[in-house]
Design goal:
The structure is a single chain. By secondary structure, the chain is mostly beta strands. Helices cover about 15% and strands about 50% of the residues. It contains 2 helices and 18 strands. The strands form 3 sheets. It has a 5-stranded mixed barrel. It has a 5-stranded mixed β-barrel with strand order 7-8-9-12-11. A 5-stranded mixed beta barrel has the order 13-14-15-18-17. About 10% of the residues have low confidence.
Length: about 250
Amino acid sequence: MKSHLLRLSLVAFLGLLLVSLAGLRPALAASAPGGETPDVAFTYNMTPTVGAHVEFKGTVEAVGANSLTVNGKAVTTDANTKFKPNVAAVVVGAMVEVDGVYQADLTILATEVEVKQASGEFKGLIESFGATQWVVGGKTFVIDANTQIKGTPVAGRMAEVKYAKQPDGSLLALKIEVNSSKPRRFEFTGVLKAMGATEWKVGTRVVQVSPSTIIKGTPAVGRYVTVKGSRSGTTWMATYVKVGRMAPARFRR
């Protein structure tokens, strides 16, 4: 009997304690910094306000004379907007970071637009280079004062180019990295397993092809090919390919 009464008393005590704590909650809320209620998840007002600073990354979807659309957001530019590396690099498809402020019409006036990823990347052997243009892997790239060049250019060495396609169709080099290691010549024969615009799989190797690659014969998956070129690191750049006969079925798999 005594244990039963003890349990009833304990339940009653806990009930009174919960009621007391519930009554204290408004007071705790009022005493918290800024009137915040402890242990409550807050949501912040994300509605744009005029003059508020905004910074975001996204893909350029449209380009106008003084405007951009980045991830669906309307961005305007003016004479004070800074472009990195330059305004020509801001093209459709480029990844950019925008820093700006909201205007009365809730568009964003950009104070700075920085290209984080160019609209294209390309690897190839340097064929020629100069102050205003380079030819890499059969492609011509325009060089200007903002082009970043890492390494010493040497004809025959491998280079990786990040570029933007300009309105006139030319390719503006934003950054060029020259591989410092001297390329090693290679030659091997294997079965062509797959073909792409810039890469072929020959046997177990993936080789790079470019507009300057000389191809003798009509390439087709399953045929033997002899590949000659230069190797730099893990990149195999084909300069010459000779297509041979069709390989036996067991070698085409």
